[in-house]
Amino acid sequence: MKGWMGKFRALFLLSSLALILSGCGKDNLTALVPKGYGAESAMDLIILTTIVMVFVFIIVMIIYTIVLIRFRKKKGQEDIIPKQVEGNKTLETIWTIIPILLLLIIAVPTVTATFDLADETGKEDAINIHVTGNQFWWHFNYEGEEIQTSQDLYIPVGERVYLDMISSDVIHSFWVPTIAGKMDTNPENENTMYIEAYEEGVYWGKCAELCGPSHSLMDFKVIAVSPEEYDQWVADMQNVDPEEEPQDAVVQEGKELFEANNCMSCHAIGSSPAAIGPNLTNFGDRSTIAGFLEPTKENLVDWIVDPESIKPGNKMTGNYPNVSEEEAESIAEYLMQLQPSEVTPESAGN
Amino acid sequence: MSIAATQKRGFGAVLWDYLTTVDHKKIAHMYLFSGGFFFLLGGLEALIIRIQLIKPNNDFISAGLYNEMFTMHGTTMIFLAAMPLLLGLMNAVMPLQIGARDVAFPFLNSLGFWLFLFGGILLNCSWFLGGAPDAGWTAYAPLSTTSPGHGVDFYVMGLQISGAGTLIGGINFLVTIVNMRAPGMTYMRMPLFTWTTFVASTLILFAFPALTVGLFLLMFDRMFGSAFFDIALGGNSIIWEHLFWIFGHPEVYILILPAFGMFSDIFSTFSRKRLFGYTAMVFATLLIAFLGFMVWAHHMFTVGMGPVANSIFAIATMAIAVPTGIKIFNWLATMWGGSITINSAMLWSLAFIPSFTIGGMTGVMVASAVADYQYHDTYFVVAHFHYVIVGGVVFGILAGLHYWWPKMFGRILHEGMGKLAFWTFFIGFHLTFFIQHFLGLMGMPRRYWVFLEGQELDLGNLISTIGAFFMTFGVIVFLINAIYSWKKGEKAPADPWDGRTLEWATASPPAHYNFKQTPLVRGLDPLWIEKTEGKDEMTPAEPLGDIHMPNSSILPFIMSLGLFIAGFGFIYQTDNSAWLIVLFAGMAILFGSMIVRSVKDDHGYHITKEELEREAD
Asked: E strands of chain A, at which residues?
């Protein structure tokens, strides 16, 4: 008996120790330290439900422990036949009514928050962004701004930004744990959610619905910057001239290779809404390559030469001529200098 | 055929006996054996998943293979391990508990088993034929409709065939319980395990058709060019999610309710007390089953159903906590004031209470729709449903196996090994899954082939993987225990645990007609009642007479084999229409057997009174 409870306690101790050691998870990824409206609403409910449920658990465990201490068969009492109790109306009523009351404590704020997060008043005047989930990347189309981009979603801090979400292929789910909960992107109709970041920062986003082999690599970032920086970024993005001829010879060669290898049939630079592949307008400013790699030239070259080895099942593999390492380097040079804006992930700090 | 003749026979004869048997006890053995095999297979897949996630950016297996691994782990564990293990225990015990000689339809019982087994084998054939299904056990469209290769086709055909078997089994149990209870065994005198078998069978009857329909739509989309889930052609992929979960959520209760029944019987037996609040327990079971059909969309809070639907399903889900809580407290009250014996069966049952309570708690937490926007599709949910399904269903199956092993196999499992298996599995289980609650909230979605470096998810995943090895060790010890008991186990008396219900009133293992004379039931816990009056056996309800028994038949095996062959025809006719021959050949075998079965009169046979008297000597 002692061993049984002892081991159970040791187990909990070990688990909580592990939790303390690992903290609450990575800043700007974890849902446990919310920095946005949706995440905060969820966290409030998580805390409330945890308190109520731990209370119930403690009651159960107290009775359980007493039962195991007091009512084990003792030596010399093997023949004792316990009283055969049929039930007890009062007790049974108590443990029916109290849980109902406890659930009401949880249910009311749940319903309130559910309606609150689905509230769309003020959507017309807010920033609206169309989000499209694709295998295995994210496209962002800023409504009324003629801005198309992918992977890095820029938003102003402290403002409700409405996202209308859809998928171009299978179901994905848009999740930025630190600032908001998740919402599925379905192929048939748009879902709407709003996000609001309280602090500037680069927030990790993840795809949360199984979408194929590279589901786990479909990361993105939400970059919350000050409203001024956001306006600056919008202006910079709108000023991009995709026809501009580069000065540098290597970059010029890269641009020519980019065009010669048919890259433009899927990718776009500028505000063209075509989005078979990610829009590359501000590629040089991106926080990652392919959504999850360090933004270095080497990684980009590896990606261009053999994307399949980096993101299995991606739609780029096999859809362009073979590119040599040297050619890839030139293309990389060209892409990495696509830096239209002063506002970059660094602007958001951390 | 007398009992003596079933002893001392060659391997071929035993094999033939099992292939043709319609005896619920032998069918139970086959369910347990094949369910056990698939449990090991699913466990191996789980171990591979955990090894892949032992460190960040691991490349133990490829992304595509990883998706196949977790798809097959989920599908195997639910449909091919948990379900058949439970159906096995139901088959072994329920007819005995109601004092019946067999189930209502012995032939169908056999057919149900073989359909399940051939469906399971068909599904697993995919491993060797170009890759297993990779769209998750939930097979959401359009990922499942567009998944290349034949993996998802095997999923569709395998589940369709084994699902038909389960449906047949469920209907059979319903008819058995309604019609074949011994005299005096009213509904409100049935043991809780029989009750939960009854309710779970009702759930099977209403829930499995939703899966069948969904699978048919998916099958036609993949194999015959329909567009139920194809958006480009006017279909809708969300319909699949609804159909799947209208089946999928009651499925959870199909699994957990029988486990609840086992715990009720075990707590009562080993506390030497009548089940506390029997009536409340029965109605709580019915209420859980009823509400279980009202909550499927809580799996879909993030689908975009809108706040009204989300709120309704959130509250309906929370409501299930009330009858579940009633059960937990009634179990505690059953033990309160009792004289508790702790052995392996009881250890698993006692471990169930805190483990399942945690699973129930997190169940209420995920029911809170807005909080679920964070939990959904993360490791928090993985932790939650493993606490429910391992902490509830698997603990229940293991408790039930230890409890009824003597009745089923005539041997008692070794206590020392039982305890070793329990402690390692129990510790491993909490080690594996408790930390996953936090991994989920720290930003780790489920079904992730790799987690990246520098996300502070490393330690949690490592602990989880270590736990998986503890669980593996526990399972291996249990296996050794099972083999040991078969070879050298202590012979079991008819009533090794001072039991209360009818199954303990007959020999261990029972004769193939179960009861020489149908017992007369005089109340709840009928054997206990007789014992308190100083008797050691049941009062018979009938004089000794001839017993009518069904004949064995190979037809269920052949029918299932026919569907199995047709399954390949369905899958491969998309590549080459020559495969239609295989399809039609398989179906011809099936329908031919059905015609034989319909035309041929089979009246069974009688064990005469004289034979029964001879055996008694």
From this structure: 127-134, 137-142, 147-150, 152-156, 161-167, 172-175, 182-185, 191-195, 201-207, 220-225
Considering only CB atoms, which chain A residues are within 8 Å of B463?
A: 15, 18
Please give, rounded to a whole number of angstroms, the shortest distance from the CA of B169 to a CA of chain A.
33
pLDDT: which is higher, B97 or A17: B97
Domains of chain A: 249-348 (2.60.40.420)
Do A87 and B374 count as a contact with CB atoms less than 8 A apart?
A: no
Over residues B211-268, the pLDDT tens digits come to 999 999 999 999 999 999 999 999 999 999 999 999 999 999 999 999 999 999 999 9
How many CB pairs (< 8 A) connect A and B? 312
**Nearest-CB residue to A170 (from B143, B322, B377):** B143
- Domain around B90: 13-553+602-616
Q: For residue B578, is it within any domain?
A: no
Provide mean pLDDT across the span A132-138. Answer: 96
Query: Is A71's CB within 8 Å of B337's CB?
Result: yes
A62 contact B CB<8A: no
Q: Whole-angstrom Cα distance, residue A337 to residue B564?
A: 59
Which residue blocks in B447-542 are alpha helix, DSSP H? 458-488, 526-532
Judge: B376–A22 Cβ closer than 8 Å, yes or no: no
Distance from CA of B470 to the nearest CA of A (A): 13
Compute the average pLDDT of residues B74-83: 97
With cut-offs at 50, 70 and 90, classify the pLDDT of residue A21.
Answer: low
What pLDDT band is residue A75 in, cutting at 50, 70 and 90?
Answer: confident
Number of domains making up chain B: 1
Element (H, E) at B606: strand B605-607
What would the mean pLDDT of A325-331 be, rounded to a whole number? 94
Quick check: is B7 in a domain? no
Is the peptide bond prior to B224 cis by the omega test (within 30 degrees of 0)? no
Looking up residue B452, the CATH number of its domain turns out to be 1.20.210.10
A41 at the B interface (CB within 8 A)? yes
- φ/ψ of B60, rounded to 5, equals -60, -45
Residue B589 in domain: no
Burial label, A159 (beta-carbon count in 10 A; 0-12, 13-18, 19+): middle
> Tens digits of per-residue pLDDT, B561-614?
999 999 999 999 999 999 999 999 999 999 999 999 999 988 899 999 998 888
In a domain, B587, yes or no: no
Q: State both tokens at B374.
A: 């964070």
